[in-house]
Design a protein that fits this description.
mainly alpha, 12 helices, globular
């Protein structure tokens, strides 16, 4: 049998050197999948890996969104464009991953669901961080994490800071757009109203009717819409996957399950960015 020889330049001796495995700490990563069912149910590995990979992607979303917020706070919108474009692509990965979990049938999941006890994705600290970074603030959500002081401290810090959208509105005000003061200086621990702000809507209407004048603000607004739409699609598919696998059973964390997830799908992070589409009029020529 013909064998392709190794190229002479390929490094072979890694004694005392960095390797692919050590750089990525694969021993830790690949040993973290520990099914609890006894005897071990074949499909529990799928369930664990699905959630491990989701948490890794969410870690990157947080990393990128923190950078976007920092850029906007410095009035540097263009660096945020690339970062948010990356976030959208990560969200697409999270969305497509549900297709793998959808191969888990109700009959298979029920065989090991009991080992989760009250463990639930609702308790994901990283998911809560993403919601806070996007502006869905709810101090009561931190109560689920009281057993973990470090998580509480991190969530409290995010709760008390302006979200990505808050920083965008503050940037618009600094640029001279008529964003009301109550939208640029407020209690950051509280969510913005789902009904939105007429003042913010009026400011965005100026931007959308004059994109040539406000091109970078206009582009940033559309990047935010991209991120929210991708997030909503992810939540919708989450709901449908749960419905497909457990029907209308209660969630392991105690929620109403599909009903609870359906309410989350209806939440809007950036209401004025959606409402402005109804308000736009033809530009003067």
């Amino acid at each position: 049998m013909d064998q392709r020889p190794l190229e002479p330049g390929i490094h072979r001796d890694f004694r005392g050197e960095m390797t692919y495995s050590t750089y990525l700490d694969l021993e830790t990563l690949l040993s973290a999948q520990k099914p609890l069912s006894r005897p071990v149910h074949h499909d529990e590995m799928l369930f664990i890996i699905q959630h491990h990979v989701s948490e890794l992607w969410m870690k990157l979303v947080i990393h990128e969104m923190e950078e976007a917020i920092a850029a906007v706070s410095r009035d540097e919108l263009e660096p945020a464009f690339k970062v948010l474009a990356r976030v959208k692509l990560i969200q697409q990965q999270l969305f497509n991953m549900w297709a793998v979990l959808e191969t888990l049938t109700p009959s298979e999941y029920v065989e090991f669901r009991g080992v989760l006890q009250h463990a639930s994705g609702f308790q994901s600290v990283q998911y809560r961080k993403i919601e806070f970074l996007m502006g869905n603030k709810h101090p009561g959500m931190i109560e689920v994490h009281r057993h973990d002081p470090r998580a509480v401290a991190e969530l409290e810090a995010l709760l008390s800071r302006p979200s990505l959208y808050d920083e965008f509105l503050r940037h618009m005000a600094r640029r001279g757009l008529p964003v009301p003061p109550e939208d640029t200086s407020r209690d950051w621990r509280e969510p913005r109203p789902q009904a939105g702000s007429r003042g913010v809507l009026a400011a965005l209407k100026i931007v959308y009717e004059n994109p040539d004048t406000w091109w970078d603000v206009y582009e940033m607004a559309e990047k935010l819409v991209d991120v929210e739409q991708a997030f909503q699609l992810w939540r919708f598919r989450h709901m449908k996957t749960v419905h497909r696998i457990i029907g209308h059973k209660r969630g392991t964390g105690g929620s109403s399950g599909v009903g609870f997830l359906r309410q989350m799908v209806d939440h809007t992070f950036f209401p004025e960015l959606w409402d402005v589409r109804t308000e736009i009029e033809r530009r003067a020529r």
